[in-house]
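Researcher: I'm preparing a figure for a lab meeting and need a structural model of a single chain. I don't have an experimental structure, so a prediction will have to do for now. The sequence is pasted below. Please return the structure as tokens so I can convert it later.
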Amino acid sequence: MIYQEFALAPDLTVAENIYINDLGDSRGIIHWQALKSKAEALLARLGFTDIDVLKPVSELSVAYQQVVEICKALHREAKVLVLDEPTAVLTKRETDKLFEIIADLRAKGVCIIYISHRIEEVFGICDRITVLKDGRKVGTVHVGDVNREQLVRMMIGREMKDLFPARQAEIGKVIFQANHLNCGTMVKDVSISVRQGEVLGLSGLVGAGRTETFRAIFGADKKDSGEIIIAGKEVKISSPRDAVACGVGMLPEDRKQHGVLLELSIKINGTLTILNRLTRSFGRIDQPEEDELIAGLVKKLHAKIGSVDDEVNSLSGGNQQKVALMKWIASNSKILL
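Model: Understood. Here is the structure written out token by token.
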């Protein structure tokens, strides 16, 4: 099984993680060179020859960690393979490569259970579709017997006239500029500008420097050079604290490491950025106001939770992501990365 939530040993190497259940021979001896060669060959099959198999998994990006998870499952030559949203952090090129491997496994008689909410993927690789809603089975259909609209109706329980409703936002003047950003080896002379109400997509293959660009803008990584202009004025962002003070929020790639505090409550996570607004004399937090605010955020984002006092790690991945977004909606961020 390839889990949605990674099951990797962060301090072990890529090669050790891939072959963690098959490290040595019957005498307990590990043949390191053979292990390295096997891991490199498996990654090459996926098209990831740039991953260093001797590097600790904790030093890889989220997308590369997903690739390691896929390799862990592939080397076992399983008869039944369960994939739980394996493309969530992959680009189209990596996804297409994964689908080629799935097709190859199908041809060899492997049974595959593919879990996804991406409709185009389901129609692209599946023979039959079973729809779940609120923990219950809605039905099972053959791919050729159902179209996209019918499948959406099964998933949400009603007609959906527009899968992507028309946006109502008015595009205003330029509110954010990053000019000639340089940061380490991954961000070289990057300049972007965004207008009020506008959505700017930053695209590229895994390892292209997208995440590093955002981290440099947000002050999570120290810039080597470049300027940031917000509402026509240059600002100095040297840390995430500076970014928040300037009205910049960031929803990071790695939710668990950088987006939420898993062992704290939904309420604490959702109001982290506005504690100064909720704090009264002697450092006391206004609990009624905090409760009212967090209830509104849960309703606005349609988050499925038990109680706002539950720990974030009790939620599904999608609802954890909504909690990660709550604090930026609460803070009325002018720019959201």
